[in-house]
Q: What sequence folds into this?
């Protein structure tokens, strides 16, 4: 536990979220008032900004703009998907990072991301320790996918879940207006974890949800899908709303989007890739089997950048995670990630704790199988109890001319 | 001008919007307190509900739920796309409508929809006049496409424009986070009118908009599209955000979505229809011509049902249009449509007027060509001045459990 004096670098990594900048706001505002932190830098495009020595001097930004980051979606500093090789295999990047850290006297390094980014964070942390360079390294969690191990949930998930549930309520009303059959297939993000797709069930609670919810935790069978849809349309005046995770796979582990794409390729013999994603592919597949309108809808990037529907709980927790990183690092903690521990009895309570960053690296946390019910087509009340507190409240950018006023950073290089 | 005493039927027709139910709320709340109106019916699925005698007794609904309709998206009564044949060609439907009107002593008939629906409204009105049946018929305008002739704008447009502009601001931030080229193609509704696609320019005003905006008013050329995108990516660090109307056509009047689909069909010789819509097709086309990531995004149904982003101006005007229909009809007006006349000098002012419903039937109002600039890739400040007042303010459903509380109707048949 070393109390260090020096500069801080904060980087954003991986797919952006509605609240990743709220964590940045937490880091920057807290760091700028800490006397042990001599300079506050934002790395352009995550670790790439360190390697390229593209560091923004955050002390040059207006305080008001830094607070507006709380409600500005996407990664304001720029993001990156860059996986560091193991230092044993190739030390080049590490040598460069250490060189930059020494040049700017960097004694605090925070990295904001999901499990891949925590791998980066862990590798840098271990390399610095091994090389005797004092620098407190803290991971700040972030991912809409909610698949990070060791934390009750991740900043970014609550807002995406609120976007998905609200949008499915609206789509569910829209997709049922005509007096004839219609199948609507809504594709939701989440890679190999079904947390986001499961959020469709929050809309069900309000009576305007999805009839079928498919998560990647359960093998997806195209024949069973047809039977499920048939059952619902027959019981439901020809209407069926399906929420499906982009990451559903067949029993052999092949992504269904690829299975459908390959089936089409085999058919036309030209090897064309299928246009659109899973929802388009499933809609095409269903339309060949049902004599009614089938519409595929992809919630696409909107679900992860829809800051106008951010959850206040999520925004505040993301900010807190950033603040906490500064507080614990300046108290001498290193090689850790900020995690949430939550209690849902007698009201929702969330506290921040620390965990070894190595534990969060590269591990995927998926939806408990016992929460998946109705023969793999729905999630249980347990999920609703888990997710509902995370979508509460509203927090969004002030409006100017009826549109959000997002943060404007000067981004002055150090 | 006849002041009649009798029942009222209100029907919703065509594609739903975020605020079509706000007009319903205006009609129902105003009609239920008018002593000349002896019964208030909502027709299930528009004119089909009249033909099938499926009429909901709106007096049985809770007043609180009727007011919640103001912020409930989609058509609460159910909608329909049903084009009445000319009475000269086939009188069957008209005879049935008159029969139902007589049975329920219907003296007020209001129909809420776009230009196709105003055609229905006009035909029924003229038939009733011709057959000497006293019934005041009023059209209530509605369409996200904003293509209705004779009114400054249509209820539904402002909220969809606000959704589109806000979403494009968020997408624009998200699509620019990585330090490498990326082309993002966003498909927007509007059929043959570019009002909705033009709304992307409201996001530009805020500095987070689209680099290229293509409207259906100008012929779309795939080669020029590639040149436009090339120019933008070269000037813009490899990034390009495109907003394109679903209705863009080539110089011969063929929809580009079909042109791309036919090109693929010709290529694979199997006549497969293209999956996904225009954005997927254009993304596929662009990805063959640019060595960078290309993503197609369809705003799909979300843009017309995103009531959580409704404009307060739009909600109030939609409500007013419904209220006005009742007030003018009970004052003896018939065969008219409620239209908006607006002034934008010294602040925005909107007043309601009446126009012969025949004038609104089947006419499409498109974006003035002089508002389309930069060689057909942008809209001018004139459009912004026109549209900006329409997206002002917020009006949405109260939240329960962090999610919207939409109206719950009992729908008790008369």
A:
């Amino acid at each position: 536990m070393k109390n260090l004096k020096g500069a801080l670098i904060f980087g954003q990594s991986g797919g952006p979220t509605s609240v990743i900048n709220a964590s940045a706001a937490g880091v920057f505002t807290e760091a700028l008032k800490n006397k042990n932190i001599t300079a506050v830098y934002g790395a352009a495009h995550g670790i790439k900004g360190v390697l390229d020595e593209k560091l923004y001097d955050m002390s040059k930004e207006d305080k008001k703009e830094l607070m507006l980051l709380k409600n500005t979606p996407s990664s304001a500093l720029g993001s990156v998907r860059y996986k560091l090789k193991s230092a044993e295999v190739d030390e080049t990047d590490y040598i460069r990072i250490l060189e930059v850290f020494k040049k700017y006297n960097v004694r605090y390094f925070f990295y904001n991301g999901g499990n891949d980014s925590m791998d980066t964070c862990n590798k840098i942390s271990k390399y610095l320790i091994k090389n005797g360079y004092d620098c407190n390294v803290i991971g700040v969690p972030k991912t809409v996918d909610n698949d990070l191990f060791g934390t009750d949930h991740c900043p970014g998930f609550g807002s995406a879940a609120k976007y998905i549930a609200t949008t499915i309520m609206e789509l569910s009303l829209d997709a049922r207006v005509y007096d004839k059959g219609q199948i609507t297939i809504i594709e939701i993000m989440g890679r190999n974890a079904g947390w986001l797709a499961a959020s469709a069930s929050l809309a069900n609670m309000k009576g305007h949800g999805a009839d079928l919810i498919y998560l990647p935790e359960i093998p997806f069978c195209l024949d069973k899908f047809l039977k499920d849809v048939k059952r619902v349309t027959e019981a439901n005046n020809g209407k069926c709303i399906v929420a499906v995770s982009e990451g559903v796979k067949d029993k052999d582990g092949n992504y269904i989007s690829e299975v459908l794409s390959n089936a089409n390729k085999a058919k036309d013999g030209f090897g064309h890739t299928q246009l659109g994603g899973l929802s388009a592919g499933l809609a095409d597949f269903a339309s060949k089997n049902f004599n009614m309108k089938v519409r595929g809808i992809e919630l696409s990037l909107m679900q992860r950048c829809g800051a106008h529907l951010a959850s206040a709980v999520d925004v505040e927790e993301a900010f807190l995670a950033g603040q906490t990183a500064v507080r614990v690092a300046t108290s001498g903690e290193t090689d850790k990630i900020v995690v949430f521990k939550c209690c849902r009895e007698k009201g929702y309570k969330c506290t921040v704790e620390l965990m070894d960053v190595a534990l969060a690296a590269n591990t995927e946390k998926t939806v408990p199988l016992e929460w998946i019910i109705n023969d793999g087509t729905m999630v249980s009340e347990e999920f609703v109890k888990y997710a509902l507190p995370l979508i509460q409240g509203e927090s969004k950018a002030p409006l100017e001319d009826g549109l959000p006023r997002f943060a404007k950073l000067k981004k002055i290089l150090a």
